[in-house]
Write the structure tokens for this entry.
Amino acid sequence: MEKFSHIPVLLNETLDSLNIKPDGIYVDGTLGGAGHSSEIAKRLSEKGRIIGIDQDEDAIKAATERLKPYKARVEIVRDNYENIKNILDDRNIKSVDGILLDLGVSSYQLDEKERGFSYLDDDSELDMRMDRRNGKSAVSVLNSYSKEELSLIFKEYGEEKFAERIADRIVKERENRPITMVGQLNQIIDQCIPYKYKQNGHPSKKVFQALRIEVNRELDVLKSSIDTMIDLLNDSGRLSIITFQSLEDRIVKDKFRTAENPCTCPPDFPVCVCGKVSKGKVITRKPILPTEEEMKINSRSRSAKLRVFERRYVRL
């Protein structure tokens, strides 16, 4: 399980953003190989606590091993971070001092052929499930969704210019045989994209991203969880989220902005009458980006953006 180890992205920036208190309670909602969590745990006292959440069984095994030196202050839960409130309620925890999400796909998940996340191995079976207990995989999506449904997810989640053409070809191809392998899907996509559009990266990149997001409900989970996570923060607690693509970043940016300024009154109203109260302050007016040095060392960090929100309670 050593393969699950990877260099945590924006590590120092993330640790700084959380303003870690030695006796505090922290949640890592996307534990992965525990790269961030192990460094948080180092900074906690015996009274401190970190709860790591991940739905990937392999991640749980790797993180458990990596966090052994800190097991007295660490608890690992196999679940989806969308259930964070229930997870904390079950442990009689009403609020925490910080929450972290790193929304990237791990190098281990991309490299493992049987996971089917990568478009680089034609001989891999399409899967893409973060939690392999779930029934829906990339295979089931490709072979059961209508042409219209496939086109929509390729457009919305992959921002794919040739979504309709690719969806149409998929539906026609699966009439002959099910689409189960990475190579099959790569060939279909390659046939649908004109040569001049293949110059900026692998032609399958956008479709694979869209399928992964659909299979794991990634954007829906993120969108529905941010407000809950902010509400779970103590006064001055921080929510730090690392995104790797524009769709995620846009959700985080908009959610943070609304949490800071939720007022829906018309701009010309002299006073607010809607009654919506600010939940805190956006710490990052612009996202924190990796340094040139980090990008040289870890190419995975190139598209990373860190945004931070601080909970502040209104004092009457």
Q: What stands out?
A: The chain has a mean pLDDT of 93. The CA atoms of residues 238 and 310 lie 5 Å apart. The beta strands are 25-28, 49-54, 74-78, 96-102, 233-243, 280-282, 305-311.
